[in-house]
Q: What sequence folds into this?
């Protein structure tokens, strides 16, 4: 018999701030969330960066701070927020039973060293010997250890004392969904009681801009509404998002407050021939149908902004909405697209919205799927159509829903 | 583990590639003969390097090597062999794919090439201020081939694996983690089977220099085959290596119903994370002790039931000392002296991301054939590590249960218990 699974803590550090009040105040005011865009920092690519936050509040030791680049710092900070809310922070006995599943890409490279090497690489006679010498002299262990994606989770274990286990998934949006899927299924099946699940993303990375630009997927020039972009339509956003996923019986035993109920996580892949992703989404949605409660459902979409793929998702959402006016919010419009972290970020926003019982206004009022919704939101479907591959859905509901 | 069920899971197919060669038969023959796959590096110039040897895989014929292309070529071959052995080649695979892969990054040749073709300019190679927009379509492989999800996606497509493929890293424990995830999924009834595959084709000047700067690598370059010396007094580090291995994991009832031959069983899984340091385990050894104990308990066994330990055995001064400490804590001082412990890494080197699966495969073969592979280059025993390391020559010995350890940089520790068929 599958066990009921709760979300007992969440933490999100994003371009709109780090508290539910900050997120929802900004999401309700287009002038506010548009300010999160920075067109200059990584020109010609606009990004949604994380601005000021007090890292030392969750990562007090300078040695720990130095051991991480921004990617891992965002993650460690958000993990601390989630553990704090769940009442796990500092509880060594519980943390030893907490299983960590993170989704991350590699951390930041030493770009200055890369620049120095690339500037000279074509001018030297013996490239191999030059490279060996430059790397041997220039690489610094503190920096390259922060590139290892397994140390994303490793640093969280060290900083917050999470020691049940530690697994890091890689692979863009699907990695975030699968981290949640594995946590939910293990928790429901009794393969562990408490899971810390999360991800982070740093949008301000020249190496990633270069790689993605080779695929022509990044937005350049003037900002455009999310649902109406070309294939060069992704505007990246920085984020750190973590959740504590816990068996209800375990949470009740320790008196932890539930924030939302995690009902289902679906994830699949397809080769993305025309219409194939929509077929996968239809199949996933059909499996969730028996769990849905009419009238109180909203959708937080992880649409990336890559035009043709986002358009396919919009058509699917319009079809399931039918005449009911299903309220959809494409959050990347306000927060940017955070790759591995996007589904986690949307799930944190969903849990917080369910606690408040209210959804935020449409981010794109001209887009029909972003219907107005003034009622009490009782369930939220988080969608994740990977910008390249992977289709996922997460269903979460209010505890009193 | 709090599993509803601790059901043993059958292994019905194995595929592998290491520096010893392609395929299970060749690898097992050479490993049992105590041969080394370690050699001088020829992939890139070694001028000025402290370490000039590795267990690189140089016979895949996959052209200019990038991390994703080489890692894919090896994973592909290992999966094809494992599925053929399991008799599941020409069908949709009834379960998910769990892949351990190295983090994907542009190598220096790709980085240089891409910067030049994007016209980024010599003085500021990442500067895209004047970059072409839109970029020419032929640059797309610099994007798609280097996404972290692409390897798993292509393998899932080729081998018709259902569900969403998972790609993971837990450093040097990664391979063992794939087996864990597969076993968990089958035990909870998600699917009757799972494919666990791990691959690592990441030897480059930069990865080698990184480990060298951490003082993790052996620099006993002459002769290469003698460099990897786990548990020896004069051990001075591990030898980087490449490889891939794949296991077909299957619910035993499902395997029997279709008449598949069972090669061995995964009986128990255990893991624990360290919270001490980014490259060292806590001096109290708690995480590796919990990891081994967890696997043995999950298998429903006592330490004295375990007849062989396929050690993590990297050959670094620190690992081998801590692994011995952990074994003594779990097995007792007497038990630790009795149990046979050997390190495949003395011969194939450290396959990093792939090591856990490569060593799991060798462990199953050890149980199947009653042959314990040796720890070679064991000439000067370390008196602080009084273990039966199966020195220098394989031993014929029937064992019913074996433990395989994988301990990663960054504190990820996984132990697996295997049982004979």
A:
């Amino acid at each position: 018999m599958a066990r009921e699974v709760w979300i007992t803590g969440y933490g999100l550090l994003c371009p709109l701030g780090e508290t539910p009040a900050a997120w929802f105040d900004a999401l309700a005011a287009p002038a506010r969330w548009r300010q999160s865009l920075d067109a200059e920092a990584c020109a010609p690519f606009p990004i949604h960066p994380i601005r000021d936050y007090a890292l030392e509040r969750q990562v007090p030791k300078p040695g720990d701070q130095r051991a991480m680049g921004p990617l891992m710092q965002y993650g460690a900070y958000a993990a601390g927020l989630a553990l704090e809310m769940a009442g796990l922070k500092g509880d060594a006995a519980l943390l030893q039973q907490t299983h960590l599943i993170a989704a991350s890409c590699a951390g930041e490279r030493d770009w200055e060293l890369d620049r120095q090497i690339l500037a000279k690489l074509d001018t030297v006679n013996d490239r191999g010997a030059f490279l060996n010498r430059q790397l041997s002299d220039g690489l610094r262990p503190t920096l390259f250890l922060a590139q290892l994606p397994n140390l994303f989770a490793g640093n969280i274990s060290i900083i917050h004392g999470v020691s049940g286990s530690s697994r890091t998934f890689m692979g863009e949006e699907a990695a975030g969904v699968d981290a949640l899927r594995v946590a939910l299924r293990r928790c429901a099946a009794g393969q562990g009681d408490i899971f810390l699940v999360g991800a982070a993303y740093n949008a301000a990375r020249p190496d990633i801009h270069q790689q993605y630009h080779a695929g022509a997927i990044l937005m350049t020039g003037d900002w455009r509404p999310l649902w109406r972009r070309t294939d060069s339509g992704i505007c990246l956003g920085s984020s750190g998002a973590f959740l504590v996923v816990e068996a209800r019986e375990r949470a009740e035993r320790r008196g932890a407050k539930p924030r939302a109920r995690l009902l289902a996580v679906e994830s699949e892949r397809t080769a993305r021939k025309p219409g194939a992703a929509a077929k996968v989404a239809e199949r996933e949605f059909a499996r969730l149908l028996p769990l849905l409660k009419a009238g109180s459902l909203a959708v937080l979409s992880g649409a990336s902004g890559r035009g043709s793929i986002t358009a396919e998702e919009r058509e699917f959402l319009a079809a399931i909405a039918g005449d009911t006016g299903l309220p959809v919010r494409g959050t990347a419009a306000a927060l940017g697209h955070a790759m591995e972290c996007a589904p986690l970020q949307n799930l944190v926003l969903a849990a917080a919205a369910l606690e408040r019982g209210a959804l935020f206004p449409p981010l794109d009022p001209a887009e029909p799927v972003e219907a107005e919704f003034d009622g009490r939101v009782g369930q939220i479907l988080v969608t994740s159509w990977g910008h390249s591959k992977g289709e996922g859905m997460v269903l979460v509901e209010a505890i009193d829903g | 583990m709090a599993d509803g069920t601790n059901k043993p899971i059958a292994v019905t197919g194995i595929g592998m590639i290491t520096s010893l060669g392609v395929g299970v038969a060749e690898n097992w023959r050479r490993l049992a003969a105590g041969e080394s796959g370690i050699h001088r590096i020829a992939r890139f110039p070694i001028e000025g390097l402290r370490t000039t040897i590795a267990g690189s895989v140089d016979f895949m014929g996959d052209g200019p090597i990038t991390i994703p292309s080489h890692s894919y070529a090896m994973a592909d071959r290992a999966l094809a062999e494992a599925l053929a052995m399991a008799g599941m080649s020409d069908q949709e695979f009834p379960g998910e794919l769990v892949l351990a892969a190295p983090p994907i990054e542009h190598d220096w040749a790709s980085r240089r090439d891409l910067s030049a073709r994007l016209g980024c300019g010599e003085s500021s190679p990442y500067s895209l201020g004047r970059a072409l927009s839109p970029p020419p379509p032929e640059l797309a492989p610099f994007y798609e081939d280097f996404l972290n999800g692409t390897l798993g996606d292509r393998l899932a497509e080729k081998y018709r694996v259902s569900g969403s493929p998972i790609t993971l890293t837990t450093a040097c424990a990664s391979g063992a983690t794939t087996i864990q995830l597969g076993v968990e999924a089958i035990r909870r009834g998600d699917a009757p089977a799972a494919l666990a595959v791990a691959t690592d084709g990441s030897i480059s000047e930069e990865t080698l220099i990184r480990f060298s700067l951490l003082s993790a690598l052996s620099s006993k370059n002459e002769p290469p085959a003698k460099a990897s010396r786990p548990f020896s007094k004069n051990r001075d580090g591990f030898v980087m290596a490449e490889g891939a291995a794949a296991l077909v994991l299957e619910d035993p009832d499902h395997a029997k119903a279709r008449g598949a031959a069972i090669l061995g069983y995964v009986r128990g899984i255990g893991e624990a994370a360290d919270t001490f340091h980014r490259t060292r385990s806590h001096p109290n050894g708690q995480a590796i002790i919990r990891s081994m104990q967890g696997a043995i308990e999950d298998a429903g066994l006592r330490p004295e039931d375990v007849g062989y330990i396929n050690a993590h055995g990297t050959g670094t001064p620190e690992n081998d000392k801590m692994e011995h400490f952990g074994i003594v804590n779990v097995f007792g001082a007497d038990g630790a002296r009795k149990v046979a412990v050997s390190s495949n890494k003395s011969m194939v080197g450290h396959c990093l991301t792939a090591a856990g699966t490569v060593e799991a495969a060798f462990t199953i073969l050890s149980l199947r054939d009653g042959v314990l592979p040796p720890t070679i280059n064991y000439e000067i025993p370390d008196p602080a590590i009084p273990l039966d390391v199966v020195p220098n020559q394989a031993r014929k010995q029937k064992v019913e249960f074996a433990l395989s350890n994988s301990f990663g940089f960054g504190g990820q520790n996984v132990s697996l218990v295997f049982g004979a068929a």
Q: What stands out?
A: The mean pLDDT of chain B is 94. Chain B is about 30% helix and 20% strand.
